[in-house]
Amino acid sequence: MPLRRIGYPCVSLLINRTTNHETILRTGAPEKLRGLIAQNLADLRAILEHNLAHDWRLFRIGSSVIPFGSHPVNTIKWWQEFKDELRSAGKFARANDMRLSLHPGQYTVLNSPDAAIVSRAIAELTYSARFLDELGMDSSNKIVIHLGGTYGDKPAAMRRFCETVNTLPDDLRHRIVIENDERSYSPADALAVSKQTNLPVVFDNLHYTANPGEGQLEDLLKQIFATWKKRDGHPKVHFSSQAQGRKLGSHADQAEPAEFKKWVKRWGAFDEFDLMLEAKHKDKALLQIIPSTKKENL
DNA sequence: GGAAGTCAAGTCTCG
DNA sequence: CGAGACTTGACTTCC
What we know:
Blueprint: E1 3-9, E2 11-12, E3 17-18, H1 30-53, E4 58-61, H2 78-81, H3 83-95, E5 99-102, H4 115-135, E6 143-145, H5 154-165, H6 170-173, E7 176-179, H7 187-197, E8 201-204, H8 205-210, H9 217-225, E9 236-239, H10 257-268, E10 273-277, H11 282-289
Parallel strand pairs: 1-4, 1-10, 4-5, 6-7, 7-8, 8-9, 9-10
Antiparallel strand pairs: 2-3
The chain binds a DNA duplex through helix 4.
């Protein structure tokens, strides 16, 4: 079963554009933020056009595309001010069978025992979902998050995650997918949470290597692919290679070809799927691993 | 004018 | 129990 779409996160090194122009809180006045949003949306458009030329139809938008998007310092009604740019970018993506995503950072923790932290996490997810909504993208365009901390009691932390997710509005919940991480939550843990919440699971090969957890790989993959229902679109995976000589879990500059082929074959045994390449060299790494625009060459 | 330090947020590890 | 890592461009301060 073929690899359907491929892509990379946030930044194109080939055309030197990024959807993550940002600033620091002290200088986050409305005029400054407005300029950064305009820059991010212009770069998003340029990146999507560049990606189309290479047949790259998956892209992760930087979570600072609207800087301080969930912080009170940002009072801009960006969905009104940038309505034309947002709609046009979304229309371009849909017309070209592109799939977009967002991935809030390490500070977005839904299972914290601290209610204020949970509330800020929900605000970040709400903003992220709104961004995809304003582009006009359907619920197969996802927000990827990790499960959070363990706080010395992982079962309780997983229960808190599920309880919080199940209180979210349907529209928001249908945007969220969970990813196995390199330290705390293995694919089996993510599957257990998926059973309680119906959230699809993104499988990350490097995190799996660092933190395999329980279960046999082929069986885990089969179950994980099955968490993607019709409204979620095709299963999605993250691929990266280990950076040699660096900490376990650090992304390498490029994808290691033999390893890439091995995983693509493994995933392809179950279903058509989309693959996000998480290499430090971004789209340069994509060009290297798949020199032709034809994925069929794999 | 270039180098070094700082920046919203959280969690975990190390010393 | 407090500092640093995680990750990274933009900005400020230091020299």
